[in-house]
Amino acid sequence: MRRSLLLSCLLWLSTSSQAQTCAFTSAETQFSNLLTSETLNGGAVLVGNRQGLLYEHYFGNYNASTVIPIASASKLLSALRIAQLADSGAIDLDAPVSQYLPQFAGEKGTMSVRQMFSHTAGYGNDSLSPVLIDTSISLAEAVDQIACCQPLNAGYSVGGQFSYGGVSMHIAGRVAEVQGGGDWQTRWQTQFGAPLGITSIDWLAFGPTTNYGIAGAGRSNLRDYGRALHPLVNAGRSNGRRVFSPGTAQNFAQDQVGTLPVAYAPPNVTPPVRYGMGSWIDSTRPPKQPALIHSLGAFGFFPWVDFDRQLFGVFMIRGAAGVNERSLPVYTSMLQSIAQEVDATDCTLIEAFDEIFVDGFGSDT
After folding, report:
1. Which of 23, 55, 195, 232 is such that its CA lies 20 to 30 A from the CA of 344?
2. Please, which residues bridge with residue 96 across strands?
3. 29-51 in b/e burial notation, b at 16+ Cβ within 10 A?
4. Is the pTM of this model over 0.70?
């Protein structure tokens, strides 16, 4: 394995002199037109691969320090921490929640964290549930309220349907606090963010609170979200650190919906619905082809990972109501343009994020 990796690195070094900068001109034009059509004053785009950053561009009044609310793009960031805890053995993704939170009893107690993070746990269509947005209580207090007083949705059963929402992820966030050593935000940062050099990400987009909106209250700048995605294409490593094992990314690429009935999905989602861990799976790709995942937020923030080409990226805007539906066709076209350019060009790096760890080889530091 060491020899294979060494040969791969030597091959890259021998061909890097022939590489050229990828301008992604078509994608850039499409994004600029989107900003104009939505009357937005700024935006940003990032594209990277296993080695690091290929492209980073700011439009209008956005710059490297711009931090914005990312709405449901928070789900993927939260799922990265859940996956990290599962990888370390602190959480069993398929254990009943009652094993970690005994206040959940009956059928509610049978929910698993995997189901909670794939919208199949028996809740859903609940993103405006008062318990999710009450900033005066803690995450622990919010989840206690759900355990005692918020039944599964009428007609729903644990594992019986897909229904997009936030309550079940809230519960899983509390599991992460109990099993992960304390406060959600503090532990996300110390265990996942800080090792990757991330400083801007938190769950305070709508004001100070410890009732962290696991599914929708995150905020980030462009580069930090990109840094969070990089380990997914680099065998769990980035910034010289391992944050999870090489196989952990499979949790994000495997569809958890299957043949379950879809009780609720956002209007911009077209059948068949495929969802992994905190992220949508592109349903236009053949099932045997490595997945493309994304976690589009209501304000238009669009993080994505292409496991086929081992690319990741972020399209960053904060738009008005309905912008996620209007922007998705543009983003789909941008992804196609980016893929075409990467396939045709040996792109040079703007900045290296780490060595290449295709097979998980390398010492953990």
Report:
1. 232
2. 112
3. ebbeebbeebebebbbbbbbbbb
4. yes
